[in-house]
Every structure is written in C-alpha cells, then in structure tokens.
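Example 3.2
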Amino acid sequence: MAARLLRRCRWHCLGALLSAPSAAPAALLVPAGKVAMTRALPRAPLASLHVPSLSGRADSFPAKEQLEESRNPEQKVVNELIEAAASPQELFHLSELHSLSSNQASLVITRLSRLAAEKHLETDRILQDERFKQLFAIIDSQVSQVWNNALVNLLRSLYVLGLDGSRREMRSIEHEVLWRLRRLSFRQLAALAELLALQQGKEGRLLGEVLRKLELRWTELEGTRTVVTLIAKVGHVSPALMDRLEDKALELAEQFSSEEIRRIALALAYQNRRSVPLLRALSYHLLQKHTELGLAVLMDVLFAYGKLNFHQPQVFQRIASELQPHVATMSPLEVVRCVRSFALLKWLNLPLFEAIAQYTLDNSKEMSVPHLCSIIVSFARLNFQPSANEDFFSMVHEKLQGQLESLEVAVLTDVVWSLCVLQQARVPYLQHVLASTFHTQLPGDASPKAQSLWLKLIHINATARLESPGYAGPFLSAELLGAQGQGGEKATPLQSGLHEALTAVLGGSGNGRFDVRTVYGWNIDAEMLLDGDNKPLSPKDFAAPHLLRSEGTTPLPDGSRRWVWDRGEVEGLAGAAGASWPPRRRPRRVAFLRWEFPSFSNRNRELLGRCVMARRHVQAAGFLVVDVS
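Structure, written as tokens:
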C-alpha cells in the first residue's frame, strides 16, 4: 500500500514539474484544445526525484540518441513517466495529458506490451482502445523520427500484442525497418533476427534481408551472449550464417560458461548439425570446468551428444559420476531422459544404472507405464541386468499386468522384444503380440520403422520357438517369415575377408553357405557342416530347418550334436544310446557370426543386447557358434 501511494505521489510531483512554466512551453506538453494549468509547486531539481532508472534501455541506444535525450530534460522526464507506469490506464492517461512525439508514442506501446506480458492482460482490449489507435497514428505520421532502438522494440511489441501482420500500419513499420537496416548496429540486427525467426519463419522478406546483413557483417560479432543467442534462435534459418557462427563459437569456446555450452549443444542437436570440431572444443572446455555442473547442464549435454551420436568417453564418465548423486531426487521423466541418452550412446555405467534400477523399484508407484517401458528398452539395448533382478522384474510384470491393451502397437512390440533380450518374456506377452489380431495392426509399408517392427516380431517368434519350452502358440506363419526381406547392404571389409578365408579353407563355396538368412530373423555370415573327422560336407544335401526353403531333404545322421546355450555343453539330438556315430565323430553344424564395432558397447567389449540374443538363438537352433570380430 505504501509503495502504491509513493508511486502516485511521484506521478503528481513529476506532472507538476512538467506543467510548470519554467520547465517547457505549455504547447509542447498539453494536447491541442486543452488549457495548460500552472501549478504553484516548489521547483525541485530532477536529480532529487526518485524514478526507475533507464540505464538498461539507454545502453543500447546509439550515441546520438543518448546525447539528444540528455540535452532535453523534459523529454527525459516523460520517458521516465512512461517507464514508471504500472498499468495500461496510466499510460493512456499520460498520452492524454501530454503531446507525445512519435518516439515517445513508440515507447508507450513498448511499455504496454511489456505490461501485457508481465500481467497476462488481454491484448485485444488494448488494441481496440481508441487511445492506442491515436498512439499508432502519431507513429505512422512521423515514423522516420523514431529512434532505431525504439523502432526495433516497437516491432517486437506489436508482435507481442498480436497485431495482424497484414495491416497497413504493421507493413509500414516493417518497411521502415527494412530501409534502416544499414544504420542498425549488429546487436540490433541480432535482436531483430531473433524476433523475426520466431514470428515469420523462413518465408519472411524482412528476415531474409536481416540475415544477409548479418552474414556480411559477421566480423562485428562480439561477446559470447550474442553468439549463443544467434546459434540457438537464428542458426536453423540460415545454414550460411550458422557456418560463420560455428567458426566464431570455436574462437570463443574458452570463454563459454557451462550454461552457454549447454545451450549451444542443444541448438546443434535440434538442428542436427554434427559439427565435430565445435563439439570437441565444447567437450574439452566443459571438462576444464572445476565446479560441479548443474543437473540441467548434465542432462541436456548428454541428450545432445546422444542425438548427434557424438562420443566423448571422458565427458560421459564425468556426467555419469556427477549424475549418480542426483538420481534419488530426479523426477521419473528426468530418469527416463538420462537412461535413454546413455542407451543411445551405448555407454553402460554400472553404478549409475544400478542407481536407476533402484530408483525405479523405490518409486514404482509414481512411475508411469510408458516411463517404465522406456527404461526396459534402454536396459535391453545395453543388455543390463540389475543386481536385484528378481525384485525388479517382478515389479515390471506387476505394472504391465492388464496394461498390454492400452499400449501402442510399436511400444508394445519394443517392450516385449526387450523382455526377450533380457530373458524375461512371459507366455502371455508372447501370445498377445504373436496373435494375428495384433500383427495385422503393424504398418505394412516399406519404411525403416515398419521393417524394424516386423523384424522384432520375428525375433519374438524365435524366442517363443527356441527359448520358451512351455509355449504352445500361436506362431507367425511361414508367409510372414518369408515376406520380410533383409540384406542389400554393402559388404564390410571384415565380411569380405571372412568369405575369402572360409572359401579357401573349404576348397570352394559349395561346401558352405554364406550370408544365410534364417527363419529366426538373424543372418548367419557363414555356415559349415563338418563330419566326425572335421571334413566339410555339402550343406545343400541335408535338411536345414533354420532356412525358409531347405535345398536338401536328407536329415543329419542320428547323434548329430546341438550346442545348448544355457548349459555350455554338447548333447545328442537322438541320444547317445541310439547314435550310429562314435561320440566324438558326430557331424555338427558351425555358424560364423560377425561382430563389427557397432555391435559392442562403447565402454567395453561387451556385446549389445540385440547381438547377445542373436547368439543365443543361433546356438539354440543347433549350431556351434564361432564369433568373428
């Protein structure tokens, strides 16, 4: 209450000062048709009046504009009154009491937009007010006299107030700005570009001209704040300007704060610009920050590196070590973002992932089913098994019970596939996704996403056949298994070398198969069939249940051996008692599986979950597996 009273007293004092005869002629301060009244109040120096400071606004004025304001104390007082106004009515009342110049009218509109934004006022009422239209008429008639900084702020304010861009007044302001672009400072151009990129997108003519000016004058760019703002807000509009901004960011990388590094990394991620030199510089200087990084910095840098597939082990290690103490206080969404980013980067930090698993257990009631599904998919990608395995997956099964119908087709396919990777898929899950009523909902186009979903469904079908003894059906039909094509990729050097070496050992390609596509959804790089003396047999002569279409019909001799993956031993198909071959001289199938660099975790030489499941399935199908990497 006291503050409001003081503000009103200040208004009366300043108004009295402005209306004093010695301050200025009445014709300059009172609108036409009104009588100027002289009030008998003591004269007080302007310096003794306590009003809000305009130094923040004046800092961005050109020197000529600041000099003009300092020479005209009456104009300075009116400007201070405009800044001191606390409501639209005070501003409109001020416009009625005094004859405003076009520059002052623009300041009033700027202050109106700021009040509307701060107090969430209805802008329609402001735009429809007759006094607002009078202010706009003043500006329109003398727009060339509006200062550069005030003109830029006026354009921003009109956008904030929601003025229709097709109106003549708005086009007039934009046209004036267009003509003055050469006279605007680089900082004003940057502010204008930020505004227009948000309002007009890539199609605006004014924005195009502003960007051209920025590209030509980019050497004037100074200060980290402007660089960061342009990269974050304008860079996506102009690739040419973004190239210049990246060069400047490299030059200023040492000066960036951790918050500015976060903003630049996010901007690069959203624009999908994998600028390796800049990312390396940001990583280096981020590691040089000896203070503890904030949670927002850790999460956003991790997200950006994951989206850009940029690997920096030292940064990941620091992020993981500094994130671990925060896990207990993070929200479920933040935990999901964290684990998904590490999964994308194929970086498994055991202490952090154990903390996330424990957090999920402790906060299972607050954890939604979609969040839980994201955590399961991330764990499966890295083949992470929590130490409290039984408790964790008991909670997972309890949360998923009765929720399968509510999940989207793609999400449910990913979750069941991930549970297959982790060897936690239960019969009801398998029955649900392998039923014809479910897989008919999968997209049938040739998009990569659709092909990935169908391939995962085939892997689930393989799990049901090979790893679920109590599962009785349903299964995918042979037509569906054969309809999903694979291959077409260029052979890698490792694949070509393996082919050449095996061909030389076997004495020709007829004694083996290469790039074998199986009914389990996995490709075997090479397949051999050896007799008891380790001599190759022609695989084409024998039945091959792992193929979509077997070339031979002769079954393998009784007693041929199958590798049992979970016991790590060899046993007979027909039993040792009825074997017609000596125990150590039975034929056996050998599969060569090639593991390239992307098949491994980035922190160690552990296979990713998908590759682990492929190896298990091939072993369960009756092969001795030879890993090639």
